[in-house]
Amino acid sequence: MSTMFFTQAIDDALAQAMADDPRIILFGEDVPLLRRNLLVRFGPRRVRGTPISESAFLGAGVAAAMAGLRPVVEMYMVDFLGVCMDALLNHAAKVEAFSGGKWTAPVMVRVPCGGGYGDGGQHEQSLWGWLAHIPGLSIVVPSTPADAGGLLLAALQHDGPVIFLEHKLLSETWLEFLGSGGRRTVQYDVPANGAKGAVPRRWEPLPIGKAMVRRTGSDVTIVSAGVGVHRALQAAEAAEREGISAAVLDLRTISPLDRTTFCEMVAHTGRLLVVDEDYEGFGLSGELGAVALEAGVSFKYARVCTQTTIPYAREREDQALPNVKRICSAIAQLAGEER
Amino acid sequence: MPPDLWSLYALMLKSRLFEEVIAKLWHDGLISGEMHLGTGEEAIIAGVVAQLREGDAMALDHRGSAALLIRGVDPVLILREMLGCPDGLCGGMGGHMHLFSKEHLAASSGIVGAEGPTAAGFAIAAQYSNPGAVAVAFFGDGAMNQGMLMESMNLASVWNLPVLFVCKDDGWAITTQSANMTGGNLNERARGLGIPAVEVDGRDVFAVWAAANAAIERARSGQGPTFLKARCVHFEGHFLGFQLIRIARDPLREMPDIALPLTKSFLRLTGATMRERIAGLKTVMASVLSTLRDPRRDPINDPVPRTRASLQSDPERLRALEDQIEKDVSDVAAYALAEVPS
């Protein structure tokens, strides 16, 4: 075991996969600079820069995958998927169904997401619920370097399209590139255990659709993904001091959802708290409630999500995103008198 | 009416000094996130925006503060927006990439190329309900490869919309040299869509003004859109703290962190042939070298002193003007910073 930073782990797993599988090619805007370490190892035929033409190169990635390659298409930010959503919504997600199951598009879209560094509401969204809404897409949201590398490997071996979301607050390179820009005068609330952690010597794929219990507890089950997992863990520790025992489930993949583990955890505590950096309405938090109800689980429910366009102003941004304080009060409320 | 170089210079200098204040606040950590400045493109912005009037609209990209300032938006409001104050231009909600001024019909976007549809829409409204008004879109050369911008140019062409498409061509698309990513010729691209294309030296405010004047008059009189390509340089690269510029300015500090993993990866056993690897290394080196030799670093490309040079026949007036602008901008900064919460 050694330790790696979050993006370092992703790049390392990607390098391993590229060395093993010549079908993997990588392209996106500024990739020659951003993935320069891969460029000098795998050459410009496999590691390519693109014009600022997301519709073209994402759509092309889908069809290149259909033609037998394993493209990794990099987008600058998940927000920019708005420019080229058609490639995912109407093509990548539909190929398998339209072809009667005979043809798939194993494209991986690697895309930074998330806020917490003051970049404004057009550059800090999460949008995994929006993406997961579409049948045919797998959505992966790792919260640690080890998960990021392992899930990336699984995503590359998966036979359908996978959106691999790389939270910028966990990513040492994205946070430097977009947040600090070489400044030492700014600080962000980076979860240490998510930004750096132990990784295996050789990467093995982690199953897509398998959640991970980060903390056991008997009073409340907190379910989250990405940075929210670390905020939830911090809140759970605080709750422990108040005598409330909170479990934390890290979904790791939004779609497909690990319904089994999730429902077991909720049934165990009888209280579900969803911590979701994505928008509150019509998204993951509501979906989780529905899944548990459908499974016949009886539970109390609360959620801490992003409700509005993310404000640019740092303090208001911290209020808008699920923060530890909001999670703590939701835990307290949920655990309530009857405990 | 010929342009008044004095007033154009005043606008450019005010914009430059104002953005230098922004840069300082960003470096001090009082402004968060990214910061895209318009330093280097003042001649383009001033040469175009100085000709806009009530009812004209602007679709701005992620570096819109200069255009808003020159259009007459209160600089204190812009600065307080960037500081995240509730009394900023957009209530602290937008930040520098998402600046809006409804009264000036000015909308910004951090999505590359989004200026195209926005300008086209403002122009539809102008054509329909306020004939004689125009819409200006400001975007970089990198945006020219974005579908929605090309589609908007076509729409403006077939609907004869009063749009001035201003391409601020600095030769770069973020960290990528545009020449490597752009097929054909941009002027020909516009002409291919039926839009007249004019190319000017974007460091020359008089040339920009003259070209924009003709294009704006054309649009006002119902003769449709024009594509104006103006070459310029961005002294700070894509945004403040831009990695390639940092390498160019302080290679000894920046290079080791880049060179070590690069070398390790280059030497890893599995991977491409040596020939392919060297080709990859050359690509990386080319972007670093082209930054080191970048015209962005040559003061001769700075439009502000270039404009100033033509006003030196009256040094007293020049000094008085510059003193006044410096005082104005420093007053703005002092006022904007007065009650910033810590």
Euclidean distance between termini CA atoms of chain A: 41 Å
Major sheet of chain B: 7 strands, mixed
| Widest β-sheet, arrangement of strands of chain A | 3-2-4-5-7-6-12
> Low-confidence parts of chain B, pLDDT < 50 over ≥5 residues?
none
End-to-end span of chain B in angstroms? 49 Å
Report the principal-axis shape of chain A. Answer: globular
Largest sheet of chain A: 7 strands, mixed
Structure explained in plain terms:
The complex is a heterodimer of chains A (339) and B (342). Chain A has 339 residues and is an alpha/beta fold. Chain A has 15 helices and 14 strands. In chain A, the strands form three sheets. Chain A has a seven-stranded mixed β-sheet with strand order 3-2-4-5-7-6-12, with helices on both faces. Chain A has a five-stranded mixed β-sheet with strand order 9-11-10-13-14, with helices on both faces. In chain A, strands 1-8 form a two-stranded antiparallel sheet. In chain A, helix 4 packs parallel to helix 5. The N and C termini of chain A lie far apart (41 Å). Chain B has 13 helices and nine strands. In chain B, the strands form two sheets. Chain B has a seven-stranded mixed β-sheet, with helices on both faces. In chain B, strands 6-7 form a two-stranded antiparallel ribbon. Chain B has 342 residues and is of the alpha/beta class. Chain B folds into two domains: 267 residues, 3-Layer(aba) Sandwich (Rossmann fold); 53 residues. In chain B, strand 4, helix 6 and strand 5 form a beta-alpha-beta unit. Chains A and B meet through helix 1, helix 2, helix 3, helix 4 and helix 9 of A and helix 9, helix 10 and helix 11 of B.
